[in-house]
Amino acid sequence: MAIRSLMAAAALLLSACQQASDTASPPTTASAATVAPILDTPDAADVHSYAKPLEARVTHVALDLTVDFAAKRLGGTATLDVLAKPGAKSIILDDKGFEIAKVADQDGKPLPYKVGASDENLGAPLEIQLNGAKKVVITYKSAPDAGALQWLSPEQTAGRSTPISSARARRSRIAAGSRRRTPPAFAKAGKPSFTFRVR
């Protein structure tokens, strides 16, 4: 009797799976994914950020970084997909001690940028002129004293043979802490997706 019950349950499950796969919609690809529009209400702004998401915001961040354990730094590129209101001339990001080598569009054409006055808690505004760019590529190194990066020597690890670096940003510190490892430009208006390549 127990075997018949098991067989009946298995048949029911298999038929349910088969029906679900027959009616399932095709998987969504990254290119088919939609991005939420720029929010246009006052609560979209974040008092802990220089970003102006009502004008322009980042929808995706692609990090390509190299870890330098000896110098305790990350370096490489942050490629930002930008969604801007029509007529927006610039995007403002948050910077806290980055060493920026260059800023360019998706074709490698340099984009003018400037770093404003620094605040101990907020860091500094990094304003990049878009010149029509939909992607911005920032080549940079993290600050040697980046507060959002933790470095452990081999002796501090369980295996005692390989150093480790970890990035941390508690939710309440994202506005200030994470500025030391990547240049964010997001607030309550919408958080971007991320891809990472770390060597």
Task: Please describe what this structure looks like.
There is one protein chain. The protein is 13% helix and 34% strand. The protein is mainly beta. It has one domain: Immunoglobulin-like (Sandwich). A 5-stranded mixed beta sheet has the order 4-7-2-1-10, with no helix packed on it. A hairpin with a 4-residue loop joins strand 1 and strand 2 (73-84). The model is unreliable at 1-32 and 170-182 (pLDDT under 50).
Give me a quick take on this structure.
The chain is mainly beta and 199 residues long.
How far is it from the N-terminal to the C-terminal residue, by CA? 59 Å
Give the CATH level 1 class.
Mainly Beta
> Shape, please?
elongated
Count of individual beta strands: 10
Count the helices. How many? Answer: 2
- Indicate the structural class: mainly beta
CATH-assigned homologous superfamily: tricorn interacting facor f3 domain
> What series of H and E elements makes up the topology?
HEEEEEEEEEHE
